[in-house]
């Protein structure tokens, strides 16, 4: 185990000193223990049904949906995984995360950015803003307490970057910050939750940079070059279904493996995409491929609240995604380096925090949203300097 973890001593537990290696993911506990925790939480947050929707599509990558009718955001949360058990867990945990983000948070202070600037330690303009935004130095902002992932010091972040709700609000609500689920994650432990949240922030930053930079999204990559039985199995499932898979390696200023997976076929022409980021190139790639299949199943099932109304298989432009490139044309797909993660979750987190702090020129920050009565660690990571757009959510 690496020794430079003093900065994280306030969050790590004994469970974070090792990890349970599972197909396509790393966890602090085995799936049975996680399921026991998730099942208890699901009942408390209002999940009424968990559905296996895998067989609605021809690919066969396990995909589940957790239904929470009284949600203030999405009533249906999706989950994917290499096994049905992991996909079921993923769906439940995502629904639990959203419940936590929907809970009202009491502001620690309401003040203009210029009045709390010395407490922040960062430029509030480096946070993602909505379009249009009326943010200015004199705008009254509700703030909540956050902590630096570099040294544990306290700071403030705008409440609007943490809370998430689609309920109609009364009074004066000036648009300033981009509210999203980016950086919202749960886990068996705080370290596991923060690590998953930070991976998502890094992933969305890389995809946003590629999207706004023009040209192609990274370079074509050969998923089978990794020599991973898990990835090869996913590729075989996709091929047997008559679906074409395109993988692109997208550069990140953190140096972490980030992948975009795009699937398309003649029977269902729109292209569906998935993203993945991790210290392990195998896990990052697995997440991207399974998310692409999950996205496609979301449209096949039609059960989500946030489906793009313009996304369909009718003739004409497809606004939500472009078709996959023909692999027989253009440069040959590049081999994927087999990068691996560390032996413990706390070492993984320390590594990713250092990379993110350098890449974004500021320490990533975390807000602990955990409710003790629910019993699931949930966090929101906010990283000043990182980028995100609605198109990559």
From TrEMBL:
<dbReference type="Pfam" id="PF02624">
    <property type="entry name" value="YcaO"/>
</dbReference>
<feature type="region of interest" description="Disordered">
    <location>
        <begin position="308"/>
        <end position="332"/>
    </location>
</feature>
<protein>
    <submittedName>
        <fullName>YcaO-like family protein</fullName>
    </submittedName>
</protein>
<dbReference type="InterPro" id="IPR003776">
    <property type="entry name" value="YcaO-like_dom"/>
</dbReference>
<feature type="domain" description="YcaO">
    <location>
        <begin position="79"/>
        <end position="393"/>
    </location>
</feature>
